[in-house]
Write a structure and sequence with these properties.
This protein is of the alpha/beta class and 315 residues long. It is built from ten helices and seven strands. The protein folds into two domains: 217 residues, Alpha-Beta Complex (Spore Coat Polysaccharide Biosynthesis Protein SpsA, Chain A); 71 residues. The chain is 51% helix and 15% strand. It binds uridine-5'-diphosphate (UDP) and magnesium ion.
Amino acid sequence: MSKLTIIVPSYNEEESLPLLFSAVDEVIPEFQKRGVEIELLFVDDGSSDQTLSILKEKVKKREDVHYLSFSRNFGKEAAMYAGLTYAKGDYVTLIDADLQDPPKKLLEMYDVMEKEGCDVVGLRRISRKGEPVIRSFFANRFYGLIRRISKVEMVPGARDCRLMKRCVVDAILQMEEYNRYSKGLFSFVGFQTKWLEYENVERVAGKTKWSFWKLLLYAFDGIIAFSTAPLALSIFFGLLFGVISFLFLLIIGVKTLILGSGVSGLMILLCLLFFVSSVQLCCMGIGCAYLSKTYLETKKRPIYIIKEKDESSIL
Ligand code: UDP
Ligand code: MG
């Protein structure tokens, strides 16, 4: 029997947990038929409701349920990282406690993985039905932007829910960076990935833990973690201001040398202002170029990830 660990980051999910247990119980026999044993690993992210006591009760009754409980709320990223660290399964998946990633989908994902022989099967929402319009609008803008400024591909609508083989989990765990942005990390490690598309499902119970501002800051984290393009902005403006000051210089030159008319002091002042700003911004940009390299070094991301190698003695 191989083992599938289902990691469930849970923050104040007392209303969703009973529903989640019954939904998972429905798929357990199906997985058993396929020779897969299920293990549930809950990460209580410092909940202030009954989440932890519900989990403790379950653990007493069931051997296939485990939990970790944080000392305070550290956020979903931390909960996912802890879950991946402690998961023992040959296959590992993350799902939300609110049934937005329906456990039934896991079966479909597993079957696709077995059939196609891929390493990761992810879930991708093709609609954002039921989501506030403004949230969808900004989400779409974010994916458009990050696609342009980052080398790591982030698939629009991709959920954190994905079924991974052990080798993929180990690769993700090689990245110990503090500011984690999992959507980017999953893409960074590569491996053969298949996407299953589905219609958005709304939360079964409880409330979303993400406010608009929390999401906006999270998107900002994503950009900072996977792109150093913002650091290049000062060089861009430096060069732009340089061109503007040159244009002013040109106008001054034409007016005085060719037309022989006087030039206003304001014109000269503007020309100097743009020139000095340009020099300052370009110098700052050079500093930023070094900073961006240092930033990437401090993350200590693996330089490569080996998927397989032959077993000859030389390796
Ligand atoms: N979650 C968490 N820590 C947090 C916020 C959320 O562990 O600080 C969990 C939450 O319990 C749920 C999952 O992350 O299982 C997704 O959260 P939520 O459903 O609120 O996000 P949404 O689906 O609205 O994006
Ligand atoms: Mg949710």
